[in-house]
Design goal:
Length: 241
Protein backbone atom coordinates (compact mmCIF):
# COMPACT_ATOMS: atom_id res chain seq x y z
CA UNK A 1 0.00 0.00 0.00
CA UNK A 2 1.16 3.54 -0.77
CA UNK A 3 0.98 4.71 2.84
CA UNK A 4 2.92 1.72 4.14
CA UNK A 5 5.69 2.27 1.58
CA UNK A 6 6.03 5.95 2.42
CA UNK A 7 5.86 5.33 6.16
CA UNK A 8 8.67 2.78 5.94
CA UNK A 9 10.75 5.06 3.73
CA UNK A 10 10.29 7.98 6.10
CA UNK A 11 10.82 5.85 9.22
CA UNK A 12 7.39 6.71 10.60
CA UNK A 13 7.82 10.50 10.39
CA UNK A 14 4.28 11.62 9.49
CA UNK A 15 5.35 15.13 8.49
CA UNK A 16 7.94 13.73 6.10
CA UNK A 17 5.40 11.26 4.71
CA UNK A 18 3.08 14.13 3.78
CA UNK A 19 5.98 16.04 2.16
CA UNK A 20 7.06 13.02 0.10
CA UNK A 21 3.47 12.32 -0.90
CA UNK A 22 3.09 15.90 -2.16
CA UNK A 23 6.38 15.70 -4.05
CA UNK A 24 5.51 12.39 -5.74
CA UNK A 25 2.09 13.70 -6.67
CA UNK A 26 3.59 16.88 -8.12
CA UNK A 27 6.07 14.93 -10.28
CA UNK A 28 3.52 12.39 -11.47
CA UNK A 29 5.09 9.47 -9.61
CA UNK A 30 1.74 8.59 -8.05
CA UNK A 31 -1.80 9.19 -9.23
CA UNK A 32 -3.97 11.91 -7.74
CA UNK A 33 -6.62 9.37 -6.70
CA UNK A 34 -4.02 7.32 -4.81
CA UNK A 35 -2.90 10.38 -2.91
CA UNK A 36 -6.45 11.42 -2.09
CA UNK A 37 -7.44 7.98 -0.85
CA UNK A 38 -4.42 7.95 1.46
CA UNK A 39 -4.93 11.37 3.05
CA UNK A 40 -7.06 10.24 5.98
CA UNK A 41 -4.77 7.30 6.72
CA UNK A 42 -1.66 9.46 6.78
CA UNK A 43 -3.12 11.99 9.17
CA UNK A 44 -4.12 11.05 12.69
CA UNK A 45 -7.50 9.35 12.15
CA UNK A 46 -8.88 11.33 15.05
CA UNK A 47 -8.53 14.50 13.04
CA UNK A 48 -10.99 13.07 10.52
CA UNK A 49 -13.80 13.09 13.09
CA UNK A 50 -12.78 16.13 15.13
CA UNK A 51 -15.32 18.43 13.47
CA UNK A 52 -18.13 15.88 13.01
CA UNK A 53 -20.85 16.31 15.65
CA UNK A 54 -22.04 13.21 17.45
CA UNK A 55 -22.27 11.42 20.77
CA UNK A 56 -19.53 8.87 20.04
CA UNK A 57 -16.80 9.30 22.66
CA UNK A 58 -13.10 9.07 21.85
CA UNK A 59 -12.58 5.63 23.38
CA UNK A 60 -15.64 4.31 21.55
CA UNK A 61 -14.39 5.83 18.31
CA UNK A 62 -11.03 4.13 18.80
CA UNK A 63 -12.78 0.80 19.37
CA UNK A 64 -14.69 1.07 16.08
CA UNK A 65 -11.61 2.14 14.14
CA UNK A 66 -9.42 -0.63 15.55
CA UNK A 67 -12.11 -3.29 15.15
CA UNK A 68 -12.72 -2.36 11.51
CA UNK A 69 -8.98 -2.39 10.86
CA UNK A 70 -8.61 -5.83 12.44
CA UNK A 71 -11.63 -7.36 10.72
CA UNK A 72 -10.68 -10.43 8.71
CA UNK A 73 -12.75 -12.27 6.14
CA UNK A 74 -15.84 -12.69 8.31
CA UNK A 75 -18.23 -10.51 6.32
CA UNK A 76 -18.94 -6.87 5.78
CA UNK A 77 -19.32 -3.94 8.14
CA UNK A 78 -22.82 -2.60 8.73
CA UNK A 79 -23.78 0.54 10.62
CA UNK A 80 -27.32 1.25 11.79
CA UNK A 81 -27.65 4.94 12.56
CA UNK A 82 -25.11 7.20 10.85
CA UNK A 83 -26.33 10.67 11.90
CA UNK A 84 -23.65 13.00 10.47
CA UNK A 85 -20.94 10.39 9.98
CA UNK A 86 -18.79 10.41 13.12
CA UNK A 87 -18.91 6.64 13.59
CA UNK A 88 -19.05 5.98 9.84
CA UNK A 89 -15.72 7.70 9.31
CA UNK A 90 -14.12 5.69 12.13
CA UNK A 91 -15.22 2.42 10.53
CA UNK A 92 -14.28 3.48 7.01
CA UNK A 93 -10.89 4.77 8.10
CA UNK A 94 -10.20 1.40 9.74
CA UNK A 95 -10.95 -0.37 6.46
CA UNK A 96 -8.70 2.01 4.59
CA UNK A 97 -5.85 1.59 7.04
CA UNK A 98 -6.10 -2.19 6.71
CA UNK A 99 -5.73 -1.93 2.92
CA UNK A 100 -8.84 -4.03 2.40
CA UNK A 101 -9.93 -4.57 -1.23
CA UNK A 102 -11.67 -1.57 -2.76
CA UNK A 103 -14.95 -3.49 -3.00
CA UNK A 104 -15.16 -3.68 0.81
CA UNK A 105 -17.21 -0.84 2.21
CA UNK A 106 -19.20 0.19 5.25
CA UNK A 107 -22.93 -0.20 4.66
CA UNK A 108 -24.27 2.91 6.38
CA UNK A 109 -28.01 2.67 7.13
CA UNK A 110 -29.99 5.73 8.18
CA UNK A 111 -33.31 7.28 7.09
CA UNK A 112 -31.67 10.74 7.11
CA UNK A 113 -35.02 12.42 7.69
CA UNK A 114 -34.34 14.41 10.84
CA UNK A 115 -31.79 14.76 13.63
CA UNK A 116 -32.17 12.41 16.60
CA UNK A 117 -34.84 13.26 19.14
CA UNK A 118 -33.63 15.33 22.06
CA UNK A 119 -33.92 13.34 25.26
CA UNK A 120 -32.68 14.00 28.83
CA UNK A 121 -30.55 10.86 28.66
CA UNK A 122 -28.47 12.29 25.82
CA UNK A 123 -25.22 13.86 26.95
CA UNK A 124 -24.29 17.19 25.33
CA UNK A 125 -23.37 16.59 21.71
CA UNK A 126 -19.67 16.47 20.85
CA UNK A 127 -19.26 19.27 18.35
CA UNK A 128 -22.23 21.37 17.32
CA UNK A 129 -25.07 21.18 14.85
CA UNK A 130 -26.68 23.97 12.87
CA UNK A 131 -30.03 24.58 11.23
CA UNK A 132 -28.44 23.38 7.99
CA UNK A 133 -27.59 20.06 9.63
CA UNK A 134 -31.21 19.59 10.66
CA UNK A 135 -32.58 20.60 7.26
CA UNK A 136 -30.27 18.39 5.21
CA UNK A 137 -28.75 15.61 7.36
CA UNK A 138 -27.84 13.37 4.43
CA UNK A 139 -26.13 16.23 2.61
CA UNK A 140 -24.05 17.02 5.69
CA UNK A 141 -23.29 13.32 6.14
CA UNK A 142 -22.05 12.97 2.57
CA UNK A 143 -20.03 16.18 2.84
CA UNK A 144 -18.29 14.83 5.94
CA UNK A 145 -17.36 11.66 4.06
CA UNK A 146 -15.94 13.70 1.21
CA UNK A 147 -14.03 15.93 3.62
CA UNK A 148 -12.44 12.83 5.16
CA UNK A 149 -11.82 11.48 1.63
CA UNK A 150 -13.52 8.22 2.50
CA UNK A 151 -16.64 8.33 0.34
CA UNK A 152 -15.29 5.40 -1.68
CA UNK A 153 -15.39 3.25 1.46
CA UNK A 154 -19.07 3.86 2.28
CA UNK A 155 -22.25 2.52 0.70
CA UNK A 156 -25.24 4.58 1.78
CA UNK A 157 -28.60 2.91 2.31
CA UNK A 158 -31.23 5.53 3.11
CA UNK A 159 -33.83 3.44 4.90
CA UNK A 160 -35.26 2.59 8.28
CA UNK A 161 -33.51 -0.34 9.90
CA UNK A 162 -36.60 -2.56 9.89
CA UNK A 163 -36.64 -2.38 6.08
CA UNK A 164 -32.87 -2.39 5.62
CA UNK A 165 -32.43 -5.66 7.53
CA UNK A 166 -34.51 -7.45 4.90
CA UNK A 167 -32.12 -6.28 2.19
CA UNK A 168 -28.93 -7.66 3.73
CA UNK A 169 -27.76 -10.49 1.46
CA UNK A 170 -24.38 -11.48 2.87
CA UNK A 171 -22.80 -12.32 6.25
CA UNK A 172 -21.73 -9.41 8.42
CA UNK A 173 -18.54 -9.41 10.47
CA UNK A 174 -19.11 -6.19 12.40
CA UNK A 175 -22.50 -4.63 13.06
CA UNK A 176 -22.65 -1.28 14.85
CA UNK A 177 -26.16 -0.55 16.14
CA UNK A 178 -26.91 3.06 17.05
CA UNK A 179 -30.41 3.59 15.69
CA UNK A 180 -33.69 4.33 17.45
CA UNK A 181 -33.00 3.85 21.16
CA UNK A 182 -36.46 2.75 22.22
CA UNK A 183 -36.70 -0.77 23.64
CA UNK A 184 -38.87 -1.93 20.74
CA UNK A 185 -36.46 -0.68 18.10
CA UNK A 186 -33.25 -1.68 19.89
CA UNK A 187 -34.47 -5.22 20.51
CA UNK A 188 -35.81 -5.40 16.96
CA UNK A 189 -32.49 -4.29 15.46
CA UNK A 190 -30.57 -6.77 17.58
CA UNK A 191 -32.80 -9.63 16.45
CA UNK A 192 -33.11 -8.63 12.78
CA UNK A 193 -29.46 -7.86 12.12
CA UNK A 194 -28.20 -10.60 14.42
CA UNK A 195 -29.53 -13.09 11.90
CA UNK A 196 -26.94 -11.86 9.43
CA UNK A 197 -23.94 -11.98 11.77
CA UNK A 198 -21.07 -14.28 10.81
CA UNK A 199 -20.41 -16.92 13.51
CA UNK A 200 -17.14 -15.16 14.32
CA UNK A 201 -18.60 -11.68 13.99
CA UNK A 202 -19.48 -9.14 16.67
CA UNK A 203 -22.31 -6.70 17.32
CA UNK A 204 -21.40 -3.35 18.83
CA UNK A 205 -24.40 -1.90 20.69
CA UNK A 206 -24.08 1.80 21.44
CA UNK A 207 -25.53 3.51 24.52
CA UNK A 208 -25.65 0.39 26.67
CA UNK A 209 -26.13 1.41 30.32
CA UNK A 210 -26.71 5.01 29.24
CA UNK A 211 -30.08 4.56 27.53
CA UNK A 212 -32.88 2.59 29.15
CA UNK A 213 -34.34 0.98 26.01
CA UNK A 214 -30.97 -0.19 24.72
CA UNK A 215 -29.92 -1.52 28.11
CA UNK A 216 -33.15 -3.48 28.54
CA UNK A 217 -32.90 -4.95 25.05
CA UNK A 218 -29.33 -6.16 25.59
CA UNK A 219 -29.85 -7.46 29.12
CA UNK A 220 -32.95 -9.43 28.15
CA UNK A 221 -31.22 -10.97 25.12
CA UNK A 222 -28.27 -11.96 27.31
CA UNK A 223 -30.58 -13.45 29.95
CA UNK A 224 -32.14 -15.63 27.22
CA UNK A 225 -28.63 -16.84 26.28
CA UNK A 226 -29.00 -15.36 22.80
CA UNK A 227 -25.89 -13.21 23.26
CA UNK A 228 -22.84 -12.94 25.48
CA UNK A 229 -21.34 -9.60 26.44
CA UNK A 230 -17.67 -9.91 25.53
CA UNK A 231 -16.71 -6.51 26.89
CA UNK A 232 -18.02 -3.01 27.43
CA UNK A 233 -16.11 0.07 26.27
CA UNK A 234 -17.68 3.20 27.72
CA UNK A 235 -21.24 2.78 26.40
CA UNK A 236 -20.57 0.19 23.67
CA UNK A 237 -21.44 -3.39 24.54
CA UNK A 238 -19.60 -5.86 22.30
CA UNK A 239 -21.79 -8.92 21.80
CA UNK A 240 -20.99 -12.36 20.44
CA UNK A 241 -22.98 -15.55 20.02
Amino acid sequence: MLVDRLTQTCEGDTTQVVEVLSMELQHGIIAENDAANSACVISDWRSCIADIPGWLKDEEAALLYESAQALSDHGRIVEIGSFLGRSTVCLACGLEKASRPARETVLAIDPHVHPPTVHPQYEPIQGRTTEADAANPRGVFEANLVRAELQHRVEIMQAYSVDAAKRIDQPCGLIFIDGDHSYKSASGDLAAFGKHLHPKGRIFMHDYKSWDGVTQAVDEAVSRDEWTIERVVQSIAVLRR
